[in-house]
Amino acid sequence: MGNILEIKNLSVKIPAHGGTVSAVRDVSLELKKGETLAIVGESGCGKSMLCKSIMKLLPERAVIESGQIIVNGTDITGLSDREMTKLRGQLFSYVFQDPLSALDPTMTIGRQIAESILIHQRNLGKEEILARINELLTLVGIKNPEERSRLHSYELSGGMRQRCVLAIVLASNPRILLADEPTTALDVTIQAQILDLLKDIQKKRNMSTVLVSHDMGVVARVADRVAIMYAGKIVETGTAEDIFYSPAHPYTQGLLKSLPINSRGKDVLETIPGMPPSLMRLPKGDAFACRNPKALPIDFIEEPPMFKISDSHFAASWTLDKRYKNSNLE
Amino acid sequence: MSKKIWYYLRKTAIFIAGVFILTLVVFFISRLAPIDPLQSYYGERVEKMSVEEKNIARDRLGLNEPVFTQYFKWLDNAFHGDFGISYKYKQDALELIGERIGNTLILGGIGFIIIFLGSLGLGLWCARRENSLFDRIVCKLGTILSCVPEFWLALVLILVFCVMLRILPSSGAYSVTAANESGLAALGDRIAHLILPLTVVVLEHLWYYAYIVRNKCLEEIRADYVLLGRAIGLTKRRVVYRHCLRNLMPSYLSIMAIAVPHILGGTYIVETVFSYPGIGSLAYESARFADYNMLMLLCVLTGIVVIFFNMLAQILNEHIDPRIRAEQTVSGRRTADFRQEPK
After folding, report:
1. pTM of the full structure
2. Using one digit for the tens of pLDDT, what is the confidence trace for A251-274?
3. Parent domain of B150
4. Cβ(A169)–Cβ(A177) below 8 Å
5. Contact B103, B278 (CB under 8 A)
6. How large is the ipTM?
7. A269 is in which domain, residue-wise?
8. Interface mutation target, options A60, A106, A180, A184, chain B, most CBs of B under 10 Å
9. How close A28 gets to chain B, by Cα (Å)?
């Protein structure tokens, strides 16, 4: 299977008061056709920025400094907004964290879906559009689609809203779905439903999904491959098995250790000490070093490159360097 | 269906109560004000009148009776369509207003339409180009212009266009000779007389409301639904004009409904400066010289306009933004039954 999306050395910077925020730093990723890639990291580590820069929906001040975004073999990094508008929706689409604010409160669900349908298929008759709306609402698991399509967003529950957002997004039949914490604003039982729905639709439509999350439990449920992001950088990538069974980066290990299930029977939950660094003033060397109890002296001097562990598993940690391994053997 | 009738009945009741309270307040405040109404009736002659003569005149005008009696008499007459005579013009007040109201409606109406559409267009245009040079110029210029008092702006315009350039008339609504001219020339004459007052009315308000539209729209542009719209392939322009506009319309309409009396008040001042024969200059005179009947009638009319437009704004709001309707039914006595339509 080929790569539908490839990101090469992408860096995004946002000029702000008192400095520049390095939201995305030298990120390389690929997404294969039909797979689910999860991007995991703490709040503010640049996950959303990465997704928005793929669709070029960044805030106006943000600049893509370097790197390439390649979709289906074509470089879209330099495309103008007009050209991007044509690609959005059909090629890729975006699902948000908060489904309430993502829906226009003054329009019925049906009209919003119709709008999405009409962007890419202009000459549909009224009957056809209505049929498509019903079909889409059924696809996302909404019963009584005809009645529900006449409702407004505030008349729906959280889970229902997220289903409607999905219906709007799926109306234009995107090949890549960027889901930015799609379940964070929902309660736990609904989360599972929405995740299963996402997985189901992905299979039906043969879509590729980028799932952004800070919830390892969510990731374990749906991801084929996982990328761990820290301070704007990808620090480890691998298949879900690689990440969950043999995490190589100390940050990944910390994340997994801090899952509540690992603190069962203890008085306090495991945590990673400290806070993520400000993306405006990044420390020298490995950004995670100051929170890493087992940091090596070199971590404070030089940033580790990506080391290959297996064909699918990569991590950026000096502990994977041959020299370190050799010194340990001695 | 009957619910809708009830709704409008209730609105009407509130409207009538509002107008009633207004007459009460205006009546008592104007009677308590330390101005002599005889001045407007007799003009300068009042200074030569003896105390006795004044007393007789007051008796004749019914001004010596207790204020409450006066009020109920006025109310009684008003119900029968008699609003009294203007002390100054010795003419039926209603008739007098009828002669002049057209001029005010033309000035205020055209001004309002220009402000309404202009602000919306300008505001959205600026919002789409936030922080561009155009946007910044409009914002700064607007702030300065809306701080300039209307009468001053009017005088400057008169100075430039009437005194220095001599291309536009400085006062009135039409030339004295216009009555003899043909339809088209008379129309041209009217327009020439309208340009300056209209410019003042529009310039004073346009920026202010455009600025409100701009800021509201920027708030909307930051909303997630804009991002979703962009993500599914809508152009920014379309998102702004289709979604943001719809979302800011309820607040804009209520602001504009409240703007009606503002703009009307603005026209009153403009009319006075340009000696434009509308009800504004009448209102000014009647308040200045305690022309009670005229003042009452004008206040009631203006009040009706204000209350009416406020209610209109509310009704429009409820129609456009279904959330307001829902909140009302949920929090009100009636429960939310709009979702349980049998089907």
Report:
1. 0.75
2. 898 888 888 887 788 888 888 888
3. 94-288
4. yes
5. yes
6. 0.84
7. 3-91+174-329
8. A106
9. 22
